[in-house]
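Hi X.,

You mentioned you wanted examples for the new student's onboarding notes, showing what a folding record looks like when two proteins sit in one file. Here is a clean example. The first protein comes first, with its sequence line followed by its structure tokens.
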Amino acid sequence: VQLQASGGGLVQAGGSLRLSCAASGRTNSMIVMGWFRQAPGKEREIVGAITWSGGSAYYADSVKGRFTISRDKVKSTGTLQMKSLKPDDTAVYYCAADTDLEGAVMSLSSYDIWGQGTLVTVSS
């Protein structure tokens, strides 16, 4: 599986942005798609995840109620809809796939396929 995230950009605080993650290759091997972010000088953290088959979504407390994760199995695309953005949401955002489900859905170490990141900058 190959993943490519897109949709990042500059947005004002309080604004919205939608990120996409296009999957290609052996997409039927994806069990979970996760979204992560890494702010300058900080460790990468999980934003949320979605089970590819059933569409169950999970969120980090910091984004719950503001971010929505969805997926389109036909288009092999995952989406991270972000609203009420804050300057603290500024980061490079990544999508990733878990193809073996050997760990927890919300654990960074569970993901074995990573896409390139897309930068989201939220201005105050």
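Then the second protein repeats the pattern, sequence line and then tokens:
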Amino acid sequence: QVALVESGGGLVQAGGSLRLSCAASGRTVNSALMGWFRQAPGKEREFVSAISARDSIELYADSVAGRFTISRDYAKNTVYLQMNSLKPEDTAVYYCAASDTYTLTRRASDFNYWGQGTQVTVSS
């Protein structure tokens, strides 16, 4: 059983930064495709970023490319999402996810395990 626990969300002003963490148990983060998704009120869940299992290739949504960075710490079995230059439109619940597939993907349906989410609110 894989458990994912997100933390690091909060309230920040536009232009500010936050770092989200996703602590994994039951699976090592370097053996799974890891991803971040977000869901704003009244909107569908959308892909934010992913990092491949074997070669750490990173993938980003166009809306966050150049501002967000995904990374992982093998020793802590944790994946991070560094978010810089935050905008009000980044406001959402952010979810960490893990996939049994090794293929880099943006599709939520390819991810098997999900965290409970952490709220990020960016004020203008």
